[in-house]
């Protein structure tokens, strides 16, 4: 059997990782696939030369030499961003090539167009590396959990944000220092605000929701809050209260509507997701048949992500060899069964909150604040008030019983407008995960 030939566009962190995986695992992959998988050509606008272990592979600056080469079966796009990545992928599909990408920004926003083009042309698009780095999340959802109605997905989906939060928690290092470390390790996006402001996590959540529910969701339908507002004081209070702060992606299936949100969350320290630290990701699927499934592993980085890209290449190679292209539909549900779903507005959500109010340390302040919360139907479970700072201001930290998001917002707006408040209040949602799901 003739070798399966691969062309790569973008020899950066993930591209070089994928090339190394194919090189180091060549013998093993041949035994598993039944033929050789050969990286034929690499296109990159910056790279001057390939490393010595890749001697013999052609390097070009001209992407057309990958897109139009009739000898290439699978085009791997690893440049990131929307354009020109999207045009490259559509051109590859038009030329009858299968495509593999790790580009979650592109798949979450233009996946429908790309999958429709691939479906029409009878080629496959693999995007395993777009969610969870090296963790086989997409395959789990498409194949392993295929016989389930997905009730919820909850996950730490951004290695950079998790690395920042856990390093700030454990080592007390400032945000900027830790972000720089994540960039040096190759975890961060070209624009790291995507990582810290929750946008990258939202891209991944959108992809998971497409697969879980057979729906398509626009990015602006997801409520997104990042971690740049998290201060060391909230990490410390959170610890005192028995929580870890994590940037979570959350979707729950309520039947006629589904939640879609990304925000910093106080996770009880005995919850599985609380112990996922560093650049690790953790994704908890809850299915109606299987119950809870937790996947855990490196969510970013050269070799883990390269391994996921190589897994897609192998899947496609096997399907080419078996004549079973598109055996598994790109979004698991068949094209004709994809349908829109109503997204639960964030204001309708109900749960406990951590609230930190900065106020002057005068008699009556606490009763004024609790009075406003009470008027909005928010009852307080516990209060911590610690020593005043140099400006005479004290942090008043409260944990509420279940409250409606809309009521919390209104109450805090009213509290922030008081003369006794010295800075904007902070609110962080607290995760409640008792295994009970609404249907
Ligand atoms: P890098 O920036 O490290 O690599 C991209 C490479 O592509 C660079 O060498 C870049 O050159 C080159 N390039 C950019 N534009 C073009 C072009 N038009 N033609 C040819 N080459 C081009 O990115 P990553 O490897 O980190 O990320 C690649 C993709 O993988 C992204 O979609 C990212 O979101 C995704 N991803 C990344 C992970 C990670 O851990 N890094 C994990 C999971 C997914 P130059 O530097 O000059 O722009
Ligand atoms: N920037 C992303 C992260 C890469 O830090 O998780 C993996 O998708």
Structure description:
Helix content is 35%, strand content 25%. It has 14 helices and 20 strands. Strands 7, 8, 9, 11, 12, 13, 16, 17, 18 and 20 form a ten-stranded mixed β-sheet that branches. A six-stranded parallel β-sheet has the order 3-2-1-4-5-6, sandwiched between helices. A two-stranded parallel sheet has the order 10-14. The chain has three domains: 4-134 and 302-337, NAD(P)-binding Rossmann-like Domain (Rossmann fold, 3-Layer(aba) Sandwich); 137-297, Dihydrodipicolinate Reductase, domain 2 (2-Layer Sandwich); 347-430, Alpha-Beta Plaits (2-Layer Sandwich), CATH 3.30.70.260. The mean pLDDT is 95. It is of the alpha/beta class. Strand 4, helix 4 (85-94) and strand 5 (98-101) form a beta-alpha-beta unit. Helix 7 packs across helix 8 (175-184). NADPH dihydro-nicotinamide-adenine-dinucleotide phosphate (NDP) is lined by residues 9-15, 43-46, 63, 78-80, 84, 102-104, 129, 133, 186-187, 189-190, 300-301, 305.
Provide a quick synopsis of the model.
This protein is α/β, with parallel strands linked by helices and about 450 residues long.
């Amino acid at each position: 059997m003739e070798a399966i030939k691969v062309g790569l566009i973008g020899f950066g962190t993930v591209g070089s990782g994928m090339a190394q995986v194919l090189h180091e695992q060549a013998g093993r992959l041949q035994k598993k696939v039944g033929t050789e998988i050969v990286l034929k050509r690499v296109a990159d606008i910056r790279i001057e030369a390939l490393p010595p272990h890749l001697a013999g592979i052609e390097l070009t600056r001209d992407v057309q030499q990958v897109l139009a080469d009739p000898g290439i079966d699978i085009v791997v796009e690893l440049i990131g961003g929307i354009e020109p990545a999207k045009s490259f992928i559509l051109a590859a599909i038009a030329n009858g090539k299968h495509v593999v990408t790790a580009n979650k920004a592109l798949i979450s926003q233009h996946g429908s167009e790309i999958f429709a083009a691939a479906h029409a042309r009878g080629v496959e698009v693999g995007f395993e590396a777009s969610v969870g780095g090296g963790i086989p999340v997409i395959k789990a959802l498409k194949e392993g959990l295929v016989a389930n109605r997905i009730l919820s997905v909850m996950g730490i989906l951004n290695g950079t944000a998790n690395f920042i939060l856990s390093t700030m928690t454990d080592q007390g290092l400032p945000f900027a220092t830790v972000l720089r470390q994540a960039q040096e390790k190759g975890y961060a996006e070209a624009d790291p605000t995507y990582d810290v402001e929750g946008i990258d996590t939202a891209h991944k959540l959108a992809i998971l929701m497409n697969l879980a529910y057979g729906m398509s969701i626009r990015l602006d339908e997801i409520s997104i809050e990042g971690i740049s507002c998290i201060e060391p004081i909230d990490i410390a209070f959170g610890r005192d209260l028995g929580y870890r702060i994590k940037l979570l992606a959350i979707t729950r299936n309520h039947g006629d509507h589904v939640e879609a949100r990304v925000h910093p969350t106080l996770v009880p320290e005995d919850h599985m997701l609380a112990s996922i630290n560093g650049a690790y990701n953790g994704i908890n699927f809850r299915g109606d048949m299987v119950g809870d499934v937790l996947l855990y592993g490196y969510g970013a980085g050269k070799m883990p992500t390269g391994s996921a890209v190589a897994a897609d290449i192998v899947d496609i190679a096997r399907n080419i060899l078996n004549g079973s292209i598109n055996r598994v539909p790109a979004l698991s549900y068949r094209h004709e069964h994809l349908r829109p779903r109503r997204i639960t507005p964030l204001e309708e959500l109900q749960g406990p909150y951590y609230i930190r109010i900065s106020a002057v340390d005068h008699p009556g302040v606490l009763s004024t604040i609790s009075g406003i919360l009470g008027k909005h139907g928010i009852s307080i479970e516990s209060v911590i008030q610690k020593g005043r700072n140099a400006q005479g201001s004290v942090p008043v930290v409260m944990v509420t019983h279940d409250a409606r998001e809309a009521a919390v917002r209104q109450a805090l707006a009213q509290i922030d407008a008081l003369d006794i408040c010295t800075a904007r209040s902070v609110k962080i949602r607290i995760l409640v995960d008792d295994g009970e799901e609404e249907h």
